[in-house]
Amino acid sequence: MRTTLPRKVIYDTDPGVDDAMALYFALAHPGIDVIGITTTFGNVSVKQAATNALYLTAIAGRDVPTTQGVATPWVKPGEAPPDFIHGADGLGNLPARVATRNQLDPRSSAQFIVDMARAHPGEITLVAVGPLGNLSLALMLEPNLPALLLEVIIMGGTVAEPGNVSPVAEANIWNDPHAADRVFSANWKLTMVGLDVTHRVVTELALFKKIAEHHRHVATDTLHHAVAFYSTFYSGLHKHLALKPGCFAHDLLAFIYLVSPGLFTLESGCVRVMTEGIAQGQTMLNRRAYIDYPQAGWGRHLPMTDVCMAVNAAGCLELFETTLMSDWLQ
Predict the structure, then answer these.
(1) 3-state SS string for the chain
(2) Catalytic status, residue 14
(3) Considering 12, 19, 250, 306, which one is annotated as catalytic?
(4) How far is the C-alpha of 150 from the C-alpha of 188, rounded, in Å?
(5) Annotated catalytic residue 250
(6) Using CB atoms within 10 A as the burial measure, which of 49, 215, 235, 317 is most buried?
């Protein structure tokens, strides 16, 4: 008998293939209650992100409140979505979509975050796996938001691992570095799940085929199709993925951390984001808090972030497979 209630989660996302993996893990896991989906630009336009979120939940038999959020970065010019990675539609260029009826909540994503946090103070975890404009704007609307949310988990950034959009920058942070720096500088319980761990966990295409054949459902067929497209990109980029086609399950690890933090090794320190120049989007972790650096932007007044630096990859994959193979679809 369960003795604890599922964790209330708002999922801030830009679906996106790995976003879809993470969403279906969250819907399937009994310890997670997705009470809202807020969408942003990133892997696709924000309009397409909202369309995808509605579609993915509908075909899985769920009707989760879903909002449309920020469409562009806070300061820097916007970039074209990476259709060569996720497809023009964000889901590997689906050949067709079944009819669905889910509709958008009319509120902006930032307002939805604030409204839900006020309605459920201290109960909600916000899992953000795209650029952080919605969360930054929510902070402007409600400066007390860090006290209202239970915690924030971000898939983004990197410390020691090379970046995936520049030698030092991860895509979500690079897409809106000014918003990201505002988020990292806010005083909430914050965990960063970045490339230092996501590049250590490879989900093979064969696993998604196995899941689809087990369920024989439009939702898992859609996920298998999307991952096949996504894996083609990664297999052409990384030699070890060409041997066994698969992909990095970036966004998935934010939810795996939520339910199984013991699979990760953490390091704590203040994190700042480079907002300009050749290192734009770099997440800088102060690993020597005992030094009073003289440069502006550092200081002991800054909040601490827990940063995932190592991961039990086998444990993550086992948890993902067990969860997605369970009887969760409606």
Answers:
(1) CCCCCCEEEEEEECCCHHHHHHHHHHHHCCCEEEEEEEECCCCCCHHHHHHHHHHHHHHCCCCCCEEECCCCCCCCCCCCCCHHHHCCCCCCCCCCCCCCCCCCCCCEHHHHHHHHHHHCCCCEEEEECCCCHHHHHHHHHCCCHHHHCCEEEEECCCCCCCCCCCCCECHHHHHCHHHHHHHHCCCCCEEEECHHHHCCCEEEHHHHHHHHHHHCCHHHHHHHHHHHHHHHHHHHHCHHHHHCCEEECCCHHHHHHHHCHHHEEEEEECEEECCCCCCCCEEEECCCCCCCCCCCCCCCCCCCEEEEEEECHHHHHHHHHHHHCCCCCC
(2) yes
(3) 250
(4) 8
(5) yes
(6) 49
- Asked if the model's pLDDT at residue 2 lies above 60, the reply is no
Q: At residue 151, what is the residue type?
A: E
The CATH number of the structural domain formed by 7-324 is 3.90.245.10
- What is d(CA 210, CA 212) in angstroms, rounded to the nearest whole number? 5
Angle between helices 46-59 and 17-28 (to 10 degrees): 40
Contact 44, 15 (CB under 8 A): yes
- Catalytic annotation, pick one of 12, 14, 181, 196: 14
- The number of residues making up the chain comes to 330
Going from the C-alpha of 301 to that of each of 152, 208, 212, 292, the distances in angstroms are 19, 46, 49, 11
Place of tokens 């369960």: 2
Nearest Cα to 135, choosing from 74, 57, 45, 54? 74
pLDDT in tens, 67-102: 999 999 999 999 899 999 999 999 999 999 999 999
Domain ranges of the chain: 7-324
